[in-house]
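Example with several molecule types.
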Amino acid sequence: GAGVSQTPSNKVTEKGKYVELRCDPISGHTALYWYRQSLGQGPEFLIYFQGTGAADDSGLPNDRFFAVRPEGSVSTLKIQRTERGDSAVYLCASSLGDSLEQFFGPGTRLTVL
Amino acid sequence: DQQVKQNSPSLSVQEGRISILNCDYTNSMFDYFLWYKKYPAEGPTFLISISSIKDKNEDGRFTVFLNKSAKHLSLHIVPSQPGDSAVYFCAAKSNYQLIWGAGTKLIIKP
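Resulting structure tokens for the full complex:
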């Protein structure tokens, strides 16, 4: 594909449920980032992968959040025991190596009822 | 504690005039600053960047100015066009992270 894709585009779930959000980066991009954007705010860094490993997960808010990238391409952000405060748009971005420019997907809007 | 601030939630500019978007930061260790543009229901797209060792970078209609002593940067768009209507985010690079401002919604009036 030409750009970063994210699925689903929208996810509505109930408090306490488990959700998985998927990101397909641009082919060949080794770096992958997850951000969370709440209404009226800028994106907030969650985690950064270089290849298969999480090089920086300091932005994950607590241990309910986890992300994987097992083959160095597709990544999945997993949220356990969702809370209403997790409602936000989750953005994924990828870049070539440590290039300055990050390319963003359209995001997944998560709503926790 | 916000490290990157965009104090104007919105800005309205006449088509053809100059748009000036402002951003302030607190951490003098940031090595790059970037501007991203975002349309509704899309992810942010990169617009222009500036290294902390520079004070100006220009790309077509877009120019970014950096004032390190004031910890302030600005994005100038001239002339402004209707397609420039979007939310503009200022971001600062710290290691691998981008630290983002809250965004300024730019409206270009015909």
